[in-house]
Write a structure and sequence with these properties.
Length: 124
């Protein structure tokens, strides 16, 4: 009887180790492919229960750490994209303003020329 219990305990331990390896490889794969890491997504990706993930302290800490890291990096990426778009908009508007300044200067010169011609016509 004790031998059977020992065999069952060994089998359970091996199964748990294999599951942990599968979960860790899934987490690594998700991290490499920029897939959002949270308990639901890891559970589906590794085909394990969320309860198992929460009960395993090491894996739980790793998922929590990566989840917080991905949130932070996503926010940074969002801010960077927003700043890039803003810079592009500012550059576009600046070039439009510069083009309008050039046009205004040309129009002023044309107006000055026309006023000069009118003055000559009236003088004659």
């Amino acid at each position: 009887m004790k031998k059977q219990v020992a065999v069952l305990l060994e089998a359970t331990k091996n199964k748990s180790e294999q599951t942990a390896i599968r979960v860790l490889s899934a987490v690594d794969s998700m991290e490499k492919n920029n897939i959002p890491i949270n308990f639901n997504s890891v559970a589906k990706f590794a085909n394990v229960s969320k309860t198992w993930l929460y009960n395993n302290k090491e894996i739980r800490q790793k998922i929590d750490q990566l989840r917080n890291k991905s949130k932070t990096s996503k926010r940074l990426i969002d801010v960077q994209l927003l700043l890039k778009k803003k810079d592009e908009c500012i550059d576009k508007l600046t070039s439009q303003v510069n083009a309008q300044v050039v046009t205004i200067e040309k129009l002023k010169k044309q107006l000055e020329t026309v006023y000069g011609e009118l003055y000559k016509i009236k003088k004659d």
